[in-house]
Structures are given as structure tokens and as C-alpha cells.
Write a structure and sequence with these properties.
The complex is a heterodimer of chains A (115) and B (110). Chain A is 0% helix and 48% strand. In chain A, strands 2, 4, 5, 6, 9, 10 and 11 form a seven-stranded mixed β-sheet that branches. A four-stranded antiparallel β-sheet of chain A has the order 1-3-8-7, with no helix packed on it. Chain B is mainly β. Chain B has no helices and eleven strands. In chain B, strand 7 and strand 8 form a beta hairpin. Chain B is globular, with a radius of gyration of 13 Å. The termini of chain B are far apart. Classes of the chains: A mainly beta (115), B mainly beta (110). At the A-B interface, strand 4, strand 5 and strand 10 of A face strand 4 and strand 5 of B.
Chain lengths: 115, 110
């Protein structure tokens, strides 16, 4: 089955620790995205990548870092510099060639809690 | 000013009712429009794209009004399983990402 996977589903972290969230897709999509969602708020873009070895900051990149070494993978690191990291993190991907233009498809998300 | 604005609801409707949501967007150059559905504590899922001519998928009808810069979603014969949050999503010309509304919450009551 083609799709996007994220792991872990739930993650607990102590303050001051870095943590890396995994996102993998086998849809052969070029573009991948990271969002965070807080209660009562819309999705906010953290980082996105349109091709391998290239990525761009979104609206709230401070305290986060990413890499895109492979087309299938776009891991997100939440660093200790992120002031309020507790949130629901969603990874998405999109294809320029298939499906509705610009439509994004989401993984199941990782719920991060900082203790 | 937010790029995409929606009435957060909640909309509580009985089974079988027809319900409509509207969404406004700020950038007149926006090109692509979508409705996503998000269940509680789950990821958003693409419900349908919105085309200029309007489009229908079963009980769901989406319409676009470019002059007034709003998008609508109509759900006919509501089912209990339609209970979810509906996100209005817009792609602006020249942007590399989507803009998401905060969502409209729908609860269908038996």
C-alpha cells in the first residue's frame, strides 16, 4: 500500500532534549511538508522540501531542523530551542504530476508532549 | 489578516439534515481550493477539490465564488459518520504551500 508513515505515534520528551520525528512516504512524491497543529488552531507550516537536498523554512521554523537526503524521507528534529514544542505534528507530501494540483496527503501524525 | 477564514461552529444537526459551510479567502490570486476532513486526533484527509464550475461527489457539493472570494461545502442527508472538522484549504499563486483554515466542526445528532 502506498502512503505516508510517521513514527512514533506518541512521544514524550523532557525539557532540554532534542527529539527527531520520522516521516516516510512511498508515493514517489517530490514535495514534503511538516506542520504543527495546536488545539483550536489551524495547521502551521514548519518546513517544506520540494526536492531532495533542498528545503525551505515555513512560518514557524525557529527551534526546528530538517533534512532531505532521500526522496522518501523527511525527518524533523525538535530542538531544545523550541519554546513550546508540545503539539500534534503532521507530515504531508504532494505530487506535481498526479492528482489535483497542490493537494497534500498527510501521515497519521506524531503527538509530542514535553514533560 | 488570515489567508483563510472559517466559522468554527460547532454545527449540530440532526441525521438527514442538509448543512452548508462557507469559507472566505483573502488573496484574489488564489488558484486551487480544497476541503479536507479531520476526525478528532487524526490527520486531515482530502475530501474534495473545488473547481470553478462547482463539483459534486455523492452527498457533497463544493462551490467556488471567485468574485466574492468564498468557497462553500454542502452536505446533504447528513450521516452520523459525517461528524468531523472540515478544513478549508487554499493554494495561492506563487506559493509553494497551502493555507489552512482553522476548521468548522460538525456534529450529526441521531
Amino acid at each position: 500500500d502506498g502512503g505516508i508513515t510517521q513514527s512514533p505515534k506518541y512521544l514524550f520528551r523532557k525539557e532540554g532534549q532534542n527529539v527527531t520525528l520520522s516521516c516516510e512516504q512511498n508515493l514517489n512524491h517530490d514535495a514534503m511538508y511538516w506542520y504543527r497543529q495546536d488545539p483550536g488552531q489551524g495547521l502551521r507550516l514548519i518546513y517544506y522540501s520540494q526536492i531532495v537536498n533542498d528545503f525551505q523554512k515555513g512560518d514557524i521554523a525557529e527551534g526546528y531542523s530538517v533534512s532531505r537526503e532521500k526522496k522518501e524521507s523527511f525527518p524533523l528534529t525538535v530542538t531544545s530551542a523550541q519554546k513550546n514544542p508540545t503539539a500534534f505534528y503532521l507530515c504531508a507530501s504532494s505530487s506535481s504530476g498526479e492528482g489535483p494540483p497542490w493537494a497534500q496527503y498527510f501521515g497519521p501524525g506524531t503527538r509530542l508532549t514535553v514533560l | 489578516r488570515k489567508e483563510v477564514e472559517q466559522d468554527p461552529g460547532p454545527f449540530n444537526v440532526p441525521e438527514g439534515a442538509t448543512v452548508a459551510f462557507n469559507c472566505t479567502y483573502s488573496n484574489s490570486a488564489s488558484q486551487s481550493f480544497f476541503w479536507y476532513r479531520q476526525d478528532c486526533r487524526k490527520e486531515p484527509k482530502l475530501l474534495m477539490s473545488v473547481y470553478s464550475s462547482g463539483n459534486e461527489d455523492g452527498r457533497f457539493t463544493a462551490q467556488l465564488n471567485r468574485a466574492s472570494q468564498y468557497i462553500s461545502l454542502l452536505i446533504r442527508d447528513s450521516k452520523l459518520s459525517d461528524s468531523a472538522t472540515y478544513l478549508c484549504v487554499v493554494h495561492e499563486a506563487g506559493a509553494n504551500n497551502l493555507f489552512f483554515g482553522t476548521g468548522t466542526r460538525l456534529t450529526v445528532i441521531p
